[in-house]
Amino acid sequence: MGTPGRAGEGGRRARFVERAAGGDRGSFTAELAAGLPALLLLLLAGLTAVNAVTAQAGCLHAAREAALAAARGGDGSAAAGRAAPPGASVTVSVDGNRVQATVRAPVRTLGGRLPRVTVVATAVAAVEPGAAGGVW
Length: 136
Hints:
Layout: H1 4-23, H2 27-71, H3 76-83, E1 89-95, E2 98-107, E3 117-126
Helix pairs in contact: 2-3
């Protein structure tokens, strides 16, 4: 048989647990309502970052193609246009024995009303010996 003090403590603990659980009713719903917009914002930012990285890779590929084509005497802008992301602008310049190609592409943010992000990629190639000169 236990002491009277211990039996009383056990009874008080049980009532305390009941009151604590009853006082937090609806707290999960309130926290979810406050945290859901933040989670949605993080999701949109993450998807926009993925779009930007994909466009950056496409711009880099197009810039490499343009620089190599121009270094061989071909039309660098046409080569870049086939590989560039939609809406990209291509600039090809020749400076001595070097060809530099720059591709810029806008990336639409998933938040629709936010400003567009522009990604840029540049590639440089040496002019091939015997390549035909001309305007690129």
